[in-house]
Write a structure and sequence with these properties.
heterodimer; A: 274 residues; mainly alpha; MetI-like fold; 11 helices; 0% strand; B: 419 residues; 3 domains; 1% strand; flat
């Protein structure tokens, strides 16, 4: 922080640093701030100044059969993929933290790898794999691949939470006669719930925002919301896109706030456990 | 002092088993249970992720057309040394194979494949297949075929079949690296007008490098500010960093187009302020791709640097300054070296993610700004050339894999943190 006795050079550096940071933060949030007002614009072009307030683009979105179908598809695929990723990922994270064995870090790296393999490659590979099985253009293949892409996030968040989990609690439960399943659902899961839920949120966001694999695997009947947006942006950006974008931004704000709240809770858990 | 002279008996558990054995048994049971918990996910990922990837890699060297459509010819031609013309039995095998292929309607893929090697081949085999069977049966099939079309008397056409008689080929992988196998079987550089992929790979690496450096330059100060601000303010700043992170990539791409287009907000503001007369071309070129990629990837840089900086005590820097070091020297020699781990982690992560980018260049770039992923998608969706799509994809995958191994080794995949 700037001290009262700072030299002029230090003052200049301090303010230069502050201005740079402000510009960077502005850069980060500017696109989001700019597109929201445009969705309420009365005119048909995405330019400022605004020409009066109107909800016509939202009406456009909610009455368009194509947009509604894509919303429905996203609401089928994303929750299903999240459920698969959350269940398998949490089980694996528990397994990874409860014992030491050889090649554990290699196994961990492999389980996290779907996060870093370029999505285009995942798209081509899964298309080539599922098409001969007659499973391209199906919800099932889309859900399975989206789940695979979401799994790393669940593993990362749940193992992080489990590291601060007091293992004596499960030992106590076991010594009092609870079987492992009861112990997990009555003792472990309630305590690691913040980690599981934030992992699930990440997995949901991954699927809900995924467009490349969907481009390869989904037919027009399975087009999700991002797929529909991709087509819209490519052809020409209409204000309807701004309305969809605003709805999605509102959605991400809700997810972010939930996550921050959960983080507060798990921090509280960590301090009480110590 | 009394010491027992008797040899120490092993400590036994209630069941009479030595404690050590029992402990080993318990630990083994625990390991088995752990692996059983990991198994469902491992099996799931093998089926949905790893098997498709391996199958894709295999497909990049697959060469089924000649081998499967002309099985007899493929077997017969292996005895030919490639000089002069092949023997009569090769000609006989070819007409037998072509008749079967014509009846089964499998000529299409074969013609397409041969035509990529030698233009005009498709029409040659179609013409030949239509003329079959020879009637009356000629004494020499070789003479009859050469009479039908003199190209069958040209060894070049037979060398193409000989080169592709095997079920596997390095053709696509070589083509992805701007090389080919010539008539003599030597690996040579491809024709200049077809040699585009090395440029594409170089461009991909260069653009990823630029994006990584830009991310680093802008993220480092913000991470420092996050780590040094009082909690309440830093939480607010953190939300500003995480909000774009949680916003859909397509929403941000759309927003950048709105901001950067020639009639967009940035240009009209600059013209209004009298800084420029003509709108700047900020989008549908390299600038637009860089701006949006940096915007999307910056949180992946800020978060690892921030988490390292949070663990550094400010007293080190104060101590250095109080001992007479210049503040810049103190920062450079005391503070920065402690953050190198975070910089390496963030930089590698951003670089790994950049080289696979597809959406942003596709929507915000010109044809000259497309990266490898674009060509993978192009060969898959537009021209349906699986060989090229999987070969380019395989090379991109290899590059990613190497970088990821470096990352796991340097940083540790289990040290990844989100938010």
């Amino acid at each position: 922080m700037l001290q009262p006795y700072a030299t002029p050079v230090e003052r200049i550096w301090y303010w230069a640093f502050r201005i740079l940071c402000t510009l960077v933060v502005l850069f980060l949030i500017l696109p989001i701030l700019v597109i929201v007002p445009l969705s309420f614009n009365g005119g048909s072009f995405l330019v400022y100044p605004l020409q009066g307030f109107s909800l016509r683009w939202y009406q456009d979105f909610f009455t368009s059969a194509e947009w509604m179908r894509s919303l429905k598809n996203s609401m089928i695929v994303a929750p299903a993929a999240t459920l698969v990723a959350m269940t398998l990922g949490t089980m694996a994270a528990v397994g990874l933290t409860r014992a030491e064995f050889r090649f554990k870090s290699l196994l961990m790296s492999t389980l996290i790898s779907p996060m870093v393999v370029p999505v285009v490659i995942v798209g081509v590979a899964t298309y080539l794999f599922f098409a001969p099985l007659g499973m391209s253009n199906s919800y099932l293949s889309l859900i399975l691949v989206h789940a695979a892409l979401g799994v790393p996030f669940v593993i990362i968040t749940v193992t992080a939470t489990l590291q601060s989990f007091n293992r004596n609690l499960t030992r106590a439960a076991a010594s009092l006669g609870a079987d492992p399943l009861t112990t997990f659902f009555k003792v472990t899961l309630p305590l690691i719930a913040p980690g599981v839920i934030s992992g699930a949120l990440f997995a949901f966001a991954t699927s809900f925002d995924e467009v490349v694999v969907t481009l390869f695997l989904a037919g027009p009947q399975q087009a999700t919301l991002p797929r529909q947006m991709f087509g819209g942006i490519r052809e020409n950006i209409s204000p309807t896109i701004a309305a969809v974008a605003t709805i999605l931004i509102a959605f991400s704000v809700v997810m972010l706030l939930t996550l921050e709240w959960l983080r507060g809770r798990s921090e509280k858990l960590r301090t009480t456990a110590e | 002092m009394t010491t027992s002279a008797a040899p120490q008996a092993p400590i036994l558990t209630v069941d009479g088993v030595p404690l050590k054995t029992q402990l080993h048994r318990a630990e083994r049971m625990n390991r088995i249970k752990s692996l059983a918990l990991i198994a469902p996910l491992a099996i799931f990922l093998i089926l949905v992720f790893i098997v498709p990837l391996v199958a894709m890699l295999k497909k990049s060297v697959d060469n089924p057309e000649v081998h499967d459509t002309l099985p007899k010819t493929s077997a017969a031609i292996s005895h030919w040394d490639g000089k002069g013309l092949p023997a009569e039995d090769v000609y006989q095998s070819l007409i037998a194979d072509l008749q079967v292929a014509y009846d089964n309607q499998t000529m299409g893929d074969l013609g397409k494949r041969l035509n990529t090697e030698l233009p005009g081949y498709r029409s040659l085999i179609n013409k030949t297949a239509r003329a079959l069977p020879f009637d009356p049966k000629p004494a020499s099939v070789k003479a009859a075929m050469t009479e039908l079309d003199e190209r069958w008397g040209d060894p070049t056409y037979w060398q193409v079949i000989r080169r592709n008689a095997s079920a596997y080929t390095p053709y696509y992988l070589l083509a992805s690296l701007d090389h080919r196998i010539d008539e003599q079987g030597q690996i040579v550089a491809a024709e200049p007008e077809q040699a585009i992929y090395l440029d594409v790979f170089a461009r991909t690496l260069w653009m990823s490098f630029v994006v990584t450096i830009l991310c680093l330059v802008f993220s480092y100060p913000v991470a420092y500010l996050l780590a040094t601000l009082p909690t309440r303010k830093s939480n607010l700043l953190m939300i500003c960093v995480l909000l774009p992170f949680w916003t859909s990539v397509l929403v941000r791409v759309a927003a950048w187009i709105v901001l950067l287009q020639s009639g967009g907000i940035i240009n009209s503001t600059l013209i209004h302020l009298g800084i420029i007369d003509q709108p700047l071309q900020l989008v549908f070129n390299r600038t637009g791709v860089y701006i949006s990629m940096v915007h999307i990837l910056m949180p992946f840089m800020i978060l690892p640097i921030y988490s390292v900086m949070k663990g550094i005590s400010p007293s080190y820097l104060r101590a250095a300054i109080s001992l007479g070091s210049h503040p810049f020297a103190a920062f450079w020699q005391v503070y920065f070296p402690q953050t190198v781990a975070g910089v390496a982690a963030g930089g590698l992560l951003v670089f790994i993610m950049s080289i696979g980018y597809y959406i942003t260049p596709a929507l915000l770039g010109s044809p000259n700004d497309q990266m490898v992923s674009y060509f993978v998608a192009f060969y898959t969706n537009t021209t349906i050339n699986w060989g090229m799509a999987t070969a380019l994809g395989g090379l991109l995958f290899g590059a990613t894999l190497i970088l990821y191994i470096v990352y796991s080794w340097l940083v540790g995949a289990n040290r990844l943190r989100l938010g």
